[in-house]
Design brief:
The complex is a heterodimer of chains A (269) and B (355).
Chain A: H1 2-13, E1 17-28, E2 31-42, E3 46-50, H2 57-64, E4 72-77, E5 80-81, H3 90-93, E6 95-97, H4 110-117, H5 126-131, H6 134-153, H7 169-182, E7 187-191, H8 199-215, E8 219-223, H9 227-233, E9 236-241, E10 244-249, H10 251-256, H11 258-265
Parallel strand pairs in A: 3-8, 3-9, 6-7, 7-8
Antiparallel strand pairs in A: 1-2, 1-4, 4-5, 9-10
Chain B: E1 27-28, E2 31-32, H1 33-50, H2 57-82, H3 90-108, H4 116-134, H5 139-158, H6 163-166, E3 172-173, H7 186-209, H8 212-222, H9 224-229, H10 234-260, E4 262-263, H11 270-283, H12 290-313, H13 319-337, H14 341-353
Antiparallel strand pairs in B: 1-2, 3-4
Helix pairs in contact in B: 2-7, 2-10, 2-11, 2-12, 3-4, 3-5, 3-10, 4-10, 7-10, 8-10, 11-12, 11-14, 12-13
The chains are: A alpha/beta (269), B mainly alpha (355).
Bound molecules: adenosine-5'-diphosphate and magnesium ion (MG).
C-alpha cells in the first residue's frame, strides 16, 4: 500500500488536471445515461471510476473518444475542449482507450493489431506505401520496435503472429491494452480491463497498471467493477450511479461513503 | 526527416528482440514456407514471361485478357476484400477507363501507350468522387448504390448526345499500329504491354497492403469504430481506396479497349461487374495473387462451359442457357470445395502438409 500513497502525493504535486469533465449530460431518447457529471483527472494519477451496471461509465468513455456527443456540458483535455475534435483526431491528442467488450481487429495478428496502435504516430500514406519509399521502410521498422517492446512487456511473444480472433479472452485483453499503449497516450481510458479475467490475471493486471502509470508516464482513467483492484491501484476514486456523481476521494474515503455503500449494497431492494 | 513523428526517445536503438514467425520454420517436403513463396513467385514470373512463346495467337490473346481481368479483380479486392466495402459496380469503372482510352485514340489520335495513365487518373477521380457519397452507405446499401452505377453506365454510354464521342450503341472501332518489335507477333506484343502494367500494379498493391495503409484498410473492415479510435480517418481511407480501386479498373478497361480494338456499351453491363465479384471470391478474398486466379476463372470457365455444352448438346437450340447453368455449377463446386477461395485452399493445405 505504500506504493499507492507515494503515487498519490506525486499525482497531486503535478498540479493541473489533464482531463476535466464538466457537467456532462447524455440522453438516449428518454433514458438519461449521464446527468451532469463533473470531475477532474490529475495528471499522472490513476483515477478509478466506479458505479453499478448501467451507471453511465461506458457512456462517459464514449464521450471522451467522441463516439457520443454530450447533450450538454464540456470535456477539456489539457485545457482545450475536445467536443469540436473529430473522432479519429482524439488519438492524435493523446487519448487512448480499450473497450469493455473488446474491439480488436480479429483477422489480424497480435503484432499487426499493436502496430495499428501506432497509426497516429506514423504518417506513410497510399502513395509512399505503394512505392515503398526508403523512409517508409524505416518507419515500419520503428513501428515494429515499438510493437515488439510491448509484446515482450505484456508477454505476448508466443502469440505474436497468431490472428487475434482465435486467442483466449485474457490474452485478447492484453493485446488491446498493448494496442492502446502503442499510441503513446497521455491519457489511457480502460473500460473494465479485469472483466472476464481469473484471479491471477487480475493480480498481474494490478501490477501492470501501476507500472504503466509510473514507467510510461501515462495518466489512467480506470473503469472497473473489481473493487479490490480499483482500491489497490487508484489514487482517486469517483463513484457514479444513475448518471450522477455520488462520491469522490481517496479509495479509503470512497469506501466509507454512505451513498456509495448504498448504491452497491442497495441494488437488491 | 519525414519520420520525425516518432520522437520515441525511450526506445533503445536496437529495440526489443523480434521473434521470427514460427510458421516460417515449417517445411513442406523439406522446403520452408518463405522459400515456397519465393519459388512460386519466380515460377509464376517465368511462366508469365515465356508462356506466350509456346502458345498460338488466340491463346496469347486470351492470356492478355486474363491479365487485364486480373488487374480489375485486384482493384475490386483492394476495396471489397481488404477494406470491406461492397461493390457491384466495378464494370462502370472499367467502362470509364476503356472509353477514356478509346476516345483519346479515336477523337484525338493519341498513341495507345499514352492512354493508360490518363485512364487510371480519370478513374481515380471517378472512384474517389463516387466514394465520397458512398461513405454514408454500408453493406447491402453500398452494394445497391454501386449496382445502380453498373446498370446506368451502359445506358449513359448509349445516350445520344454523347454519341459523337462514344459512338453510341455501335461503340468505337479502334485501330492500332503493329508490334514495334520484329520478333514479337502482335498478340505477343499486346500481351507484354499488358504484363508490364500488370506487374507494376501487382507490386504496388502488395506494397500497399503490407504497410501502414494496408493495416488501416483491414482495420476498417474488421472493426471501423476501433479503427477510428486508433486515429484512422475512415472517410479518407474509404474514399481514397475507392479511387485506388478505380485506378486498377481504369487501367484494366484501357488495356481491354486497346487489346480488343473495340469498345461498346454492351461490353460493360452489370453482368460483368458480377463476374468481377465472382472472380474475387473464387480466387480468394483479401489475397493479392488470388486476383490472377480470379481473372483466369472468369475468362476460361465460361469458355470451357461453352465448349462442354457444345460438345454434349451441340445441336440443341436451348444450349445457350446451359452454358450459364454449367458455369453456375462450376462455381458452386469450387465454392463448395474451397470455401475460402483458391488462395485460402492452397494456404490451408500447405499448412496441413507442413511439419
Ligand atoms: N447507444 C445507446 N443507446 C441507448 N441507450 C444507451 C446507449 N448506450 C448506453 N445506453 C444506456 O445508458 C445507460 C448507461 O449505460 P453504460 O454507460 O453502458 O453503463 P455502464 O458502463 O456504467 O455499465 C444504460 O441505461 C444503457 O442502457
Ligand atoms: Mg460499461
Amino acid at each position: 500500500m505504500s506504493q499507492v500513497s507515494a503515487n498519490a502525493t506525486e499525482a497531486s504535486s503535478s498540479g493541473r488536471p489533464i482531463l476535466q469533465v464538466k457537467d456532462v449530460a447524455v440522453h438516449f431518447g428518454g433514458i438519461i445515461a449521464l446527468d451532469g457529471v463533473s470531475f477532474d483527472v490529475p495528471e499522472g494519477a490513476i483515477l478509478g471510476l466506479i458505479g453499478p451496471n448501467g451507471a453511465g461509465k461506458t457512456t462517459l468513455f464514449n464521450c471522451l473518444s467522441r463516439l457520443y456527443i454530450p447533450n450538454s456540458g464540456d470535456i477539456l483535455f489539457e485545457g482545450q475542449t475536445i467536443l469540436n475534435t473529430v473522432p479519429y483526431q482524439i488519438a492524435n491528442l493523446g487519448i487512448g482507450r480499450t473497450f469493455q467488450n473488446l474491439a480488436l481487429f480479429a483477422t489480424m495478428s497480435v503484432l499487426d493489431n499493436i502496430m495499428i496502435g501506432c497509426h497516429s504516430r506514423s504518417k506513410s500514406d497510399f502513395l509512399s506505401n505503394a512505392l515503398r519509399l526508403p523512409w517508409v521502410g524505416r518507419e515500419e521498422s520503428m513501428l515494429q520496435d515499438i510493437a515488439w517492446e510491448l509484446i515482450e512487456y505484456l508477454q505476448l511473444g508466443d502469440h505474436a503472429y497468431d490472428p487475434v480472433g482465435g486467442l483466449p479472452f485474457g490474452i485478447q485483453k492484453r493485446v488491446e491494452l498493448a494496442r492502446a499503449i502503442a499510441s503513446k497516450p497521455k491519457l489511457l481510458l480502460l473500460d473494465e480491463p479485469a472483466g472476464g479475467l481469473n484471479h491471477d490475471e487480475v493480480e498481474e493486471l494490478a501490477d501492470t497498471l501501476r507500472q504503466i502509470g509510473h514507467d510510461r508516464n501515462i495518466t489512467v482513467l480506470l473503469v472497473e467493477h473489481h473493487m479490490s483492484l480499483v482500491m489497490a491501484v487508484s489514487d482517486v476514486v469517483v463513484a457514479i450511479d444513475f448518471g450522477r456523481k455520488i462520491g469522490e476521494g481517496t479509495p479509503a474515503e470512497v469506501q466509507q461513503n454512505p451513498e456509495v455503500i448504498r448504491a452497491y449494497l442497495g441494488t437488491t431492494d | 526527416m519525414t519520420t520525425s513523428t516518432l520522437p520515441d526517445t525511450e526506445m533503445k536503438s536496437g529495440g526489443a528482440p523480434r521473434r521470427a514467425n514460427p510458421a516460417d520454420r515449417l517445411r513442406v517436403f523439406g522446403v520452408s514456407l518463405p522459400w515456397i513463396r519465393r519459388v512460386s513467385i519466380l515460377i509464376g514470373l517465368a511462366l508469365a514471361l515465356f508462356l506466350p512463346f509456346y502458345m498460338e495467337g488466340f491463346g496469347v490473346f486470351q492470356l492478355t485478357q486474363v491479365l487485364y481481368l486480373s488487374i480489375a479483380v485486384l482493384g475490386l479486392n483492394l476495396l471489397t476484400g481488404f477494406t470491406g466495402q461492397f461493390s457491384l459496380g466495378h464494370s462502370a469503372f472499367m467502362a470509364i477507363g476503356a472509353y477514356t482510352a478509346g476516345i483519346m485514340m479515336d477523337q484525338w489520335e493519341v498513341p495507345y501507350y499514352l492512354t493508360i495513365v490518363p485512364a487510371g487518373i480519370v478513374c481515380f477521380a471517378a472512384g474517389f468522387l463516387f466514394g465520397l457519397p458512398a461513405l454514408r452507405l454500408e453493406g447491402l446499401y453500398l452494394a445497391l448504390a454501386t449496382f445502380a452505377l453498373a446498370v446506368a453506365a451502359p445506358q449513359l454510354l448509349k445516350y445520344e448526345h454523347f454519341e459523337p464521342f462514344t459512338g453510341g450503341v455501335q461503340g468505337l472501332d479502334l485501330l492500332k499500329p503493329d508490334s514495334p518489335i520484329a520478333f514479337l507477333s502482335n498478340d505477343q506484343w499486346w500481351y507484354y504491354f499488358s504484363l508490364f502494367f500488370g506487374v507494376l500494379l501487382f507490386i504496388a498493391a502488395w506494397n500497399l497492403v503490407r504497410g501502414r495503409t494496408g493495416r488501416a484498410m483491414i482495420a476498417i473492415r474488421d472493426n471501423p469504430i476501433a479503427a477510428s479510435t486508433m486515429g484512422i480517418n475512415l472517410s479518407l481511407y474509404k474514399s481514397v481506396t475507392f479511387g485506388v480501386s478505380g485506378i486498377y479498373c481504369g487501367v484494366a478497361g484501357a488495356l481491354s479497349a486497346i487489346v480488343v480494338e473495340f469498345i461498346a456499351p454492351e461490353s460493360f453491363t452489370f453482368i460483368f461487374a458480377i463476374l468481377l465479384l465472382i472472380g474475387m471470391v473464387i480466387g480468394g478474398i483479401a489475397s493479392i495473387p488470388a486476383a490472377i486466379i480470379g481473372g483466369a476463372f472468369i475468362l476460361y470457365v465460361p469458355n470451357f462451359s461453352e465448349m462442354a455444352v457444345d460438345f454434349f448438346f451441340g445441336g440443341d437450340p436451348a444450349s445457350k442457357a446451359l452454358v450459364w447453368i454449367s458455369f453456375g455449377a462450376a462455381m458452386i463446386i469450387v465454392v463448395y470445395i474451397m470455401p475460402m477461395g483458391v488462395a485460402g485452399f492452397v494456404k490451408r493445405n500447405l499448412r496441413r502438409l507442413a511439419r
